[in-house]
Amino acid sequence: MITSLAHDVQAFTSNVFLVTGDTTALVDVGANFDVVSRVRDHVDELDRVYITHTHRDHVDNVAAVREAFDVETWGFDPDQSEVDHAIADGETVQIGDDDYEALHTPGHKNDHLCFYSRDASVLFAGDLVFANGSFGRTDLEEGDRPTLIESLDRVRETIDETLSEMHTGHGPSVTERPFDDVELAGRAARMR
């Protein structure tokens, strides 16, 4: 089960997804709100924390989550203080009951990952792509539009048209034809 823990938070934060099952995990931890109490509303323990990328709005709650649940974090770049263990491009990780392929998708930030499960038909897109074909900013440090376009293309080629759910770093999750949003983002990113 995938639960959005930050959907009603008014502070500047990323979305935070609690995924329960064989491996109870958070995908991103957010910032500027008490994520620990929101996790405890659903579960007593966490097995893992997955980081899509290390922009502050996605990782500022890492210390609180580590302390409260004695849990370690996984992300692309272990040189970042918020990442305890590296996930390589193409590596398989378990989130909830399903295996997800980690896709290195830079362009918004160099250490950006998306997580895709073909069996569950779910994509955790981080800040690469959002609802309605929006895409991650490229005007921040490490942002690069051509690289982002390559990452959008890679995700579009990896997923298929039957994708059921896309959970994004900001805004609403997409549960109706999310493939179309990924395709639209690729076209929109090419426009100047």
Which features characterize this protein?
192 residues, alpha/beta, Metallo-beta-lactamase, Chain A, six-stranded mixed beta sheet, five-stranded mixed beta sheet, 11 strands, 22% strand, globular
How is this structure best described in words?
With 192 residues, this protein is of the alpha/beta class. The protein has a single domain (2-190), classed as Ribonuclease Z/Hydroxyacylglutathione hydrolase-like (Metallo-beta-lactamase, Chain A). The chain has five helices and eleven strands, in the order E-E-E-H-E-H-H-E-E-E-E-E-E-H-E-H. It has a six-stranded mixed β-sheet, with no helix packed on it. Strands 7-8-9-10-11 form a five-stranded mixed β-sheet. 44% of the residues are buried.
Report the end-to-end length measured between terminal Cα atoms.
39 Å
State the CATH superfamily name: Ribonuclease Z/Hydroxyacylglutathione hydrolase-like
User: What's the CATH class label?
Assistant: Alpha Beta
Helix content: 10-25%
> What is the CATH T-level topology?
Metallo-beta-lactamase, Chain A
Strand ordering within the main sheet: 1-2-3-4-5-6
Tally of helical runs: 5
Radius of gyration: 15 Å
CATH architecture: 4-Layer Sandwich
Query: In total, how many beta strands?
Result: 11
**What series of H and E elements makes up the topology?**
EEEHEHHEEEEEEHEH
Uncertain parts: none
User: What do the pLDDT scores average to?
Assistant: 96
Overall outline: globular
The profile of the biggest β sheet is: 6 strands, mixed
Strand content: 15-25%
Q: SS-based structural class? A: alpha/beta
Number of domains: 1
GO molecular function: hydrolase activity; metal ion binding
Protein name: MBL fold metallo-hydrolase
Domain Metallo-beta-lactamase: 13-170
Organism: Halogeometricum borinquense
